[in-house]
Here is the input.
Amino acid sequence: MRKAKPKKRVLLPDPKFNDTMVTRFVNDLMQDGKKSVAFRIFYDALDIVDGRMKTEELSALDIWKKAIQNITPGVEVKSRRVGGSTFQVPMEIRPERKLAIGVKNLIMYARKRSGKTMADKLAAEIMAAFNEEGGAYKKREDTHRMAEANRAFAHFRF
Here is the structure.
């Protein structure tokens, strides 16, 4: 689109927690348009988290939100060509993209985990992210490390 910006679609809050962030997560988790299956996986994963992390005074939803917060990157590197050579330029990420990257990383590394069901894998990845470990957290750390290493090229920002 050249002139007009596309309208943001309004997401309806999920039925159990009445939270739009949950709906956004479930939309990314969903495969082949099977939203009810995705909701079942998410709710089962939160039940598993609730069962395994009784020592925490937080609810399962709060644990999930903290896990998402722990794995959302603040900066990323983008390739920029200057005078025939390509530089990795560190850039700030806008808030919507931060959340999208964090959610996608959590789901991707949960799918890669070994476990019986997707709910088990997702619960394990949520707990790992909450404790600042696991694949998604490592990915965030690598992104930040890469941006820090290329900080000298920050003046090439566009």
User: Anything to note?
Assistant: The chain has six helices and two strands. The mean pLDDT is 91. The first helix runs from residue 20 to 29.
